[in-house]
Specification:
mainly alpha; about 200 residues; elongated
Length: about 200
């Protein structure tokens, strides 16, 4: 619950900031620092969860033998468990967010900033990172689907061809995916198949 609250809180703050001119200037001027701060915050929470998991296993007569120093047959089981259960999701979404940021930035340079606003790239990358994996896939697809229908409807009611931006779609879409992922993962098709945390027990 703590991780979900932190993610939604950060997304909410970014969305509010993106709705004002002063906030947009802040997002543009400090985009790298905001991104690194979000990454640090999430991994800090994950480390905190790791200590809680260690303490929980240590207090159980059965699971304490899975801890480092107790299990000679699989001395690194706890580290593998924590890595796949907690960290791998955000490591992958971090890589995906960085790839998106770099690719979108290059696309924007060649396209004369026609595709994204300058400050948009930073907070979209943060949002994609916060989505985790496979949440980043669902968030990206959700934005594309909503944008497609919005573009289709906009084209029917307007005769002139104008740019329609997904500026305000990214962060709410990520927040929605985060909430659904926590409370109703069954509504996300193939989630169990894509989630790497489900394969942790296959290591041994």
């Amino acid at each position: 619950m703590l991780l979900l609250a932190v993610r939604v809180l950060v997304l909410g703050i970014l969305f509010i900031a993106s709705c004002t001119s002063r906030g947009r200037r802040f997002l543009l001027g400090f985009r790298s620092r905001i991104f690194y701060s979000a990454v640090f915050l999430i991994f800090f929470v994950l480390v905190y969860y790791s200590f809680l998991q260690y303490a929980a296993w240590q207090g159980n007569a059965l699971t304490k033998y899975l801890l480092p120093g107790e299990n000679r047959q699989a001395p690194f089981y706890f580290y593998y468990f924590i890595f796949f259960r907690l960290f791998i999701s955000y490591i992958l979404s971090l890589l995906g967010a960085l790839v998106f940021w770099y690719g979108a930035h290059r696309l924007n340079l060649h396209g004369g900033s026609r595709f994204f606003y300058e400050e948009e790239l930073g907070f979209v990358a943060i949002g994609l990172f916060l989505a985790g994996f496979p949440g980043i896939i669902y968030a990206f697809l959700l934005v594309l689907i909503i944008y497609f229908f919005f573009e289709l409807g906009y084209g029917l009611v307007r005769s002139t061809k104008e740019r329609v931006s997904a500026y305000y779609l990214w962060l709410p879409s990520v927040a929605l995916v985060c909430v659904v992922e926590y409370y109703g993962v069954r509504f996300l098709p193939f989630y169990e198949l894509l989630s790497l945390s489900n394969y942790v027990n296959l290591l041994f």
